[in-house]
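Entry 14. Structure prediction run on the chain below.
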Amino acid sequence: MSRHRESKSGATSKLGAIPWLAVARTAMIVGRRWTALSAKDRARLVGLVRESRGRVGNLSVRQRLELRRLAGRLDLKGMTRELLLVARGSGRRGRRRR
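Output returned:
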């Protein structure tokens, strides 16, 4: 029975260690990019990802090009830059850490 308590308390301590502010900022960044797409584009992107089942090779050449176009509209490079700032713990752009 003590074994159960240890695992439960371990899970609780791990859950408490999650930096909730970083999780919230990540959700805001991704959400902002997602809502920038039109409803039609969002639906098509979801459809393509479902159809591919996580493997781009499951799509036709035409579908791959469409997926690439829609992903480009999400500005994944820009989103990655913002997420790296969150991961580093720095919300300030252009400022060097010492």
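The chain is about 75% helix and 0% strand.
Filed with the rest of this week's runs.
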